[in-house]
Amino acid sequence: MLWLNICPADAQVENVQVAHPVYQYLLHAETRGFLHHFSLSSLPLQRSEIVNALRQIRSQQADLQTSELSTLERFEREFEILKRTNAVMIYSKTDSSQLFSERLFSNDEKMLYHYADTAHTVQAYMIGGGDMLFQKKGDSSMKNMTKAQGGFRVFGTLSNCFGYYIQVTNGTVLSGERALALEDPRIRQNIKFTTLESDFDFTESHLQFQKDWFVASIGRQTQLQGAGFFQRTLLSNLSPPMDAITLAAKFESVEYKFIHGSLLGVQLDSNGLPVPTTGFWAEVGAFVQLPPKYIAIHQLTFKPSWGEFGIWESLIYSNRGADVAYLNPLSFLKSVEHSLRDRDNSGLGAWASVRPFKNLQIKGSYFLDDLVFSLIGTDYWSNKAALNIGAQYSTPFGVDAALEYAKVYPIHIHTLMFRIQPPTTDCK
Questions:
Q1: Between residues 261 and 96, which one has the greater pLDDT?
Q2: pLDDT value at position 136?
Q3: What was the pLDDT predicted at 42?
Q4: What is the pTM for the complete model shown?
Q5: How far is CA 116 from CA 13, 58, 72, 205, in A?
Q6: 22-421 in CATH: which number?
């Protein structure tokens, strides 16, 4: 493996994908009371932010149990706080123990390329996986489906301030009932699979610049907004990756973020009227009319030592190009909308995380759409709202138990979710 003695863990400006298992470990540590002035309400986080969190956990190692220390060390090696000893290169002139040796079938991390010095980092991986799904019908017959996907991921930082990330994957149904793949919400949103009846492909990427407290990025990435254990109320787990420009000011106890992203508009017919889609299938091609559609988000987060709380406002507009009024990162969107003749759709949200004592954490979010303040709470059709509230208890022995309730108004959809599990130790 190609390795230099200097491994600048702090020079990691790029974001870490929201599916990474480190977030589950950080949630465990946050509940245990090891993280102060820290927030998981807006994901993804930068690698440097995760490094700082892992170091904060390490500083309290006297209170960590054996399983927590073991998991912490695995992540410290992956995020290069400690020197890696569990990774091998496909090829390197400087390492006598290559991948194509007895380490091919070991638990060592398999890398295409790695480079690190005092200002630059590069990491490249091949990634892949697969799963099987079984579904029992009412007549007791069983359906099944097997799918697999693979691709690559490259990320790193240049000159200690410019981060980059790209991931590309392609997958297919290997056998069984193709329709069962639609149980995955990401595949349901994939036109190549649903409409073109081919395989499915995904990509996420971003470029990010950081200087002191200022962060700016552009790219396509999955984002989660709002406090919760299972679902996020503001930008949920079911949302597709968003193409967006983001500006942020980050300090220890407060953070402000501005996002301006593009959304997929509703298809129009030749008369400019919406065309309803049939199930998961939609028309594609050069002649499909999709009006431009955008979202602007302002988010202010406060991070005291006992938890966090924040406020969130959003506005969705369409049928015109990017509006300069909504490109202003410091404004009140609802008032701006009124000044532009009230053509758009605004929303307000808030969230909080509270740790009343070690090992217990309470999280909740609330979102209100189409604001008629005098009719809030009356089931008025125009006021659409959603909320979630939950609690997690984490034991020193590595077991997390979480319970969360969610509700959507005015149609009164309720969900109650419960989970007991140990924190993950998988760093791959």
A1: 261
A2: 77
A3: 95
A4: 0.88
A5: 14, 23, 22, 21
A6: 2.40.160
Bridge partner list, 392: 361, 402
Query: In whole angstroms, what is the distance from residue 426 CA to residue 163 CA?
Result: 25
Tens digit of pLDDT for each residue in 18-61? 999 999 999 999 999 999 999 999 999 999 999 999 999 999 99
**Residue 255 pLDDT level (bands cut at 50, 70, 90):** very high
Over the chain, what HEC string results?
CCCCCCCCCCCCCCECCCCCCHHHHHHHHHHHCCCCCCCCCEECCEHHHHHHHHHHHHCCHHHCCHHHHHHHHHHHHHCCCCCCCCEEECCCCCCCCCCCCHHHHCCCEEECEEEECCCCEEEEEEEEEEEEEEEECCCCCEEEEEEEEEEEEEEEEECCCEEEEEEEEEEEEEEECHHHHHHCHHHHCCHHHHCCCCCEEEEEEEEEEEECCEEEEEEEECCEECCCCCCCCCECCCCCCEEEEEEEEECCCEEEEEEEEEECCCCECCCCCECCCECCECCCCCCCECCCEEEEEEEEEECCCCEEEEEEEEEEEECCCCCHHHHCCCCCHHHHHHHCCCCCEEEEEEEEEEEEECCEEEEEEEEEECCCHHHCCCCCCCCEEEEEEEEEEECCCCCEEEEEEEEEECCCEEEEEEEEECCCCCCC
**Alpha-carbon distances, residue 41 vs 79, 303, 307 (angstroms):** 21, 11, 11
pLDDT confidence of residue 2 = 33
Task: Give domain limits for the chain.
Answer: 22-421
In this predicted model, what pLDDT tens digit does every residue of 287-336 receive, in sequence order? 788 889 999 999 999 999 999 999 999 999 998 999 999 999 999 999 99
